Each structure stands twice: as C-alpha cells, then as structure tokens.
Fold this sequence. Notes:
- By secondary structure, this protein is an alpha+beta fold.
- The protein contains eleven helices and 16 strands.
- It folds into two domains: about 20-195, Trna Endonuclease, Chain: A, domain 1 (3-Layer(aba) Sandwich), CATH 3.40.1350.10; about 210-355, Roll (ph1033 like fold), CATH 3.10.590.
- About 25% of the residues lie in helices and about 25% in strands.
- The strands form three sheets. Strands 1, 2, 3, 4, 5, 6 and 7 form a seven-stranded mixed β-sheet that branches. Strands 8, 9, 10, 11, 12, 15 and 16 form a seven-stranded mixed β-sheet that branches. Strands 13-14 form a two-stranded antiparallel ribbon.
Amino acid sequence: MPIRHGIWTVGKKPVPLSPSRLPNEQLLEEMILSDPGILSDQWMLIGRQEVTTHGGRIDLLAITPDSSLVVIELKRDRTPREIVAQALDYASWVEKLTSSQIADMYRRFSGGNSLDVAFHKQFGTALDEEELNHSHQIVTVAAELDDSTERIVNYLNARGVAINVLLFQVFEQGEEKLLSRAWLLDPGETQTNASATVKGASPAEPWNGEYYVSYGDMSWRSWDDARKYGFISAGGGSWYSQTLKLLQPGARVWVKIPGTGYVGVGRVVDAVCAAKDFTVTTASGDQPALEVLQHGHRYKARADDPEKTEYFVRVQWLDTVPESKAFNEVGLFGNQNTVCKPTTPKWRHTIERLKTPFPKWDN
C-alpha cells in the first residue's frame, strides 16, 4: 500500500497542515545540492545531470563511505513503472564507469576539485581506487508511489537488486512550505543488497545464513570491551549503524577489524539497542554502557541524536582472540559495511579458513 504522509500542529487541538507541492523538480534538486542530508548525511554528491552514452541524463550521483555509487532520480509527482526502467538503464551505464571517469565527473561537478581529497575530507578515510564503484544502488525520489512501482521495487529487492524509493511530501504552514520524507524500504536492506552484488565478482552463491561484521574505527571502539562485555557496535551515522538491524537473536557473526583481521565469532543474543539503553554486566551488576565502556564519554555526547548515536548488538562469543592475534591472510572476505550477508565464493573460502584459528566456532 502506498505510503502517505500527514503533519499536524502539536497542541490540545491538533490542526493538519495542508498538502502542497513543489513548482518543479529543479527546486528539489537545488535543495538537495544545498543540503544533501535531505537524502542521507552519509552520502557525498559527485555528479549532476550527467549525460549517459545511452542518451539519458542522470539527475544526481553520490558516493558512499565504502566507495559504492548511488544513482538518484528525482520525480516531483508520481513514479510510474517506466521511471524504474529508466533508473535501471542509468545504473547499467554507471556500473561500467572507470575510476578516472568518476574522478573527471567529480571535477566537473565541483569546479575542478579532487575526488580523492573530497572523499577523505567527507569520510575520514582514503579512497581506494580498486574499491571505487565496486557496487551501486538506485534511489528514486518522488512525491507519490503507484501500486505498480511499489510491486516492482519490492520484487527487485527480494531478488537482490539494490533499489529504493524516497517519498517526500510538501505541506503549507502559513507562508512557509515544509518538506517531509519517508523511505519505502529500510535503507539498510538496500545497502545490504548493494554490498552483496559486487561488480566483477564470481557468480553469487546461496547465502549460508552467517553474517560478516566489520568492527571498525578503533579510535572510537575497543575490541577488549567488546570481548569482555559481549557486544558489537557501530555509530557516527545511519550508514554505519543501520545494517545492525539485520542481526536477529541466534544469528552467527564473524567479526573482522578492518586492516587488522578476524578476531571473533559469536551468536547474537538481542536485537540492536541504542547506547543510552544498553547495559553491560560487571562485578557490581548490570551497569549503563555509557558509564563503563572505554569510549562511553564519546557515546554519551551523541546519545540523544538517533542518527549519530552508537548502537549495540549483544553477542555471546563462541571464540575470540585479542586484536594483536587477529587472523588475516590474502584471499579472505572483507567489506566496509558494518554488517552484510555475503554470497560470494570468497565467503565460503573464508569460513573454512576461519574454522582453524577459531576452533570453538560451533560450540
């Protein structure tokens, strides 16, 4: 059923705001260029009105922290199924872009700036040319969604195609116009689909039911704490934390510290929990994580921001090693998403190799 928005004033007698509309798509595009957070505060825009070799014109193109791309199509009114076909056609062109073509695109978009420099400034990490455009997702931004388009988007996602719809609605309050938004699907699901469909990878295999977890940015996290108190965590932006929602009690997770190696395997105990509600068991009983963990003071500073706060998933560890003894070798699976469901032969190979350094993996 298509999603519909409504906004009311707050008070003893709530008053609904009157629906309105934008005069044209260009205004929406200009708003997004001025504040990309309307789409996501974890995407960086790198292209606008790019002409494809197929004769089309892509409204906006963005890059995510794992160097994958996002094709963004803006439609002020309804999104008939033909628009989905158009977006898929654009994505087939984007998939073939080389790193030099993407760098040139950003130079045109930014007025001569370097993609490498901008990426590092935005995400705090170096852009890996080999990872650039390794996968992509499609987002259609629209005011309404017809039944046919909704069925098609759901069908494609169920089969691993990373496509989503961001619905917006304009309301009037006096002389002001207000913009609201809602995703058709959980952005974490689309992000997961994108990470599982890597360009140039071997044919996908059936998912084995086990999750890969990237426990990253050790300046904000302590693996010693995670081992001791039984958890994994992520935060600093929805892109990093939203895939934690994929983990449900009973799921097996294999944890890797990026750039270091695999450090543990365990079973999920509880679903994701925000930092201010998460507790850990100490000798004195259960205590707030914000008061106990090494980086608790940092988590406390952004605990009231649902986008930036740290999120935790409780884990019963089956086997772990300290960070200094992490297992790593050429050919093991890796991914910059916090959680993903790998479907590549490399994942099967990785699991078999990890059973040796983590012999209690199935306890």
